[in-house]
Amino acid sequence: MASLYAKNNKLYLSIYHNGQRVIKPTGLEDNAKNRKLVSNDLLPNVLFQIQTGQIDISSKKESKTVSFYAELFLKSKKALLKDSSYVRYDSIIRNQILPLFGNRDINSIKLSEIKKWYNYWVSSRSSATSIYIANVFSAIFKEAFYDEAVEKNPFDFIKRPKKEQSGAKPFDIETMKLLISGADDVWFKNFLALSFFTGLRTGEAVGLKWEDIDFKTQELEVKRTRRYGKDVSPKTQKGYRSVPIFDELLPYLKNQRELTKESQSQYVFLSMYGTPFNDGNRIRDYHWKKLLEKLELPYQRLYDTRSSFATMMLSSGKFSINQVAQMMGHTNIEMLIYKYNKFIPSEVKKLDKSIGLF
Predict the structure, then answer these.
(1) Distance from CA of residue 347 to its chain's centroid?
(2) Of the candidates 187, 321, 173, which has an alpha carbon nearest to the alpha carbon of residue 248?
(3) For residue 292, which of 309, 305, 279 has the smallest C-alpha distance?
(4) What does residue 13 show for φ and ψ, rounded to 5 degrees?
(5) d(C-alpha 268, C-alpha 207), whole Å
(6) Could you give the CA distance from residue 14 to residue 12 in angstroms, rounded to a whole number?
(7) What does the longest C-alpha to C-alpha distance in the chain come to?
(8) What are residue 230's DSSP bridge partners?
(9) Claim: this prediction has a pTM higher than 0.70
């Protein structure tokens, strides 16, 4: 069996003979004239040479596995990506792709298998996460495609779902108080207080160490975030920042210091095993969801503790937009205004309408 296909506007022959596949570049551009030439002349000639032994295909090419191209992909990204992005790629490959496909010859994987695998992630994760996972696997197939190990990328035939536009949804002050007081575990009360009163991302909160906190100056330094069990640098240079410890937060941090004083760990928040959390997933999926159910509150993202801090700071009128942006680690104030302006009472109402403009 033989077929003709195009890649990068060049024609290739794909021939199966005695259970083996041979790919032959023709060097010809993909157009109607050359397709006719290849089909009527070149292809029959190559088939004849194979059948008469003039072209030896007895030694089968070494198969290349998904693991091989996954490592190739990661090596190509190592020097280009920030630690946080690389760690996420690496974790998705190790946990979501390799367990099922790692030892498979990448050319043996059928589109139906990819669809079944992808549909599982679509049904069990958010649309944004499932798309991200699919894009990583697609990038691995691209490495194989460029290496001519596969004829096409199966992900070119899979439709991704639209990303959900969830957006910020801050808690009001009373609900914030209810959540902190309603937490059963003392450490979780302290964790929520830190999140509400500093606006730290969940990964930044679990990556916080006692050396980052200065009780005398009432400031803490954000130097890292934790993802997939590793300390990585913040998303942007602005992510490295000093955040004030407001008086309301101070007793919660001192309480947490007392809780962990016997621990050998340098991290502020520890799991039940006395080790730092790998990331915020366990806190979100177990402790946070359990608390919302207990208080009979509709589900909201744990990340909205951050948006609650932003709107609380802006609505207070005590801080400039630039100061709040710095506390949040935003790269610019436009991002802050875009995300949170709709939750802040209009400043127009405070204007003196009697001012004489002329």
Answers:
(1) 36
(2) 173
(3) 305
(4) -100, 135
(5) 8
(6) 7
(7) 99
(8) 227
(9) no
With residue 227 as reference, give the H or E element that holds it. strand 225-227
Q: Find out whether 269 and 206 touch, Cβ atoms under 8 Å.
A: yes
Q: Quick one: which of 7, 151, 6, 150 has its CA closest to 69?
A: 150
Domain 66-157 in CATH 1.10.340.30? The answer is no
DSSP assignments along 119-173, one per residue = HHHHHHS-HHHHHHHHHHHHHHHHHHHHTTSSSS-GGGG-PPPPPP-----PPPH
- Report the 10 Å Cβ neighbour count for 41: 10
Residue recorded with tokens 């009979």: 296
Where would I find the H helices in 266-352?
281-282, 289-294, 304-316, 321-328, 333-340
Q: How far apart are CA 246 and CA 356, in angstroms?
A: 40
- Tokens at 182, concatenated: 């309603």
> Please, what is the angle between helix 304-316 and helix 321-328, to 10°?
160
pLDDT tens track, the chain, 358 positions: 677 888 888 888 887 766 666 777 888 888 988 888 878 877 777 777 777 766 665 545 567 899 999 999 999 888 787 777 888 899 899 999 999 999 999 999 999 999 999 999 988 887 888 899 999 999 999 999 988 888 889 999 988 777 655 567 899 999 999 999 999 999 999 999 999 999 999 999 999 999 999 999 999 999 999 988 889 888 778 889 999 999 999 999 999 999 999 999 999 999 988 999 998 988 998 999 999 999 999 999 999 999 999 988 888 888 888 888 899 888 777 777 777 767 665 543 344 444 444 4
- What is the DSSP-derived secondary structure letter of residue 290? H
d(C-alpha 293, C-alpha 274), whole Å:
26
Q: Which residue has the tokens 């744990």?
A: 302
Report residue 39 as tokens.
Answer: 């089909």
Give me the count of residues in the chain. 358
CATH architecture of 173-343: Orthogonal Bundle (1.10)
Cα 187 vs. chain centroid, distance in angstroms? 27
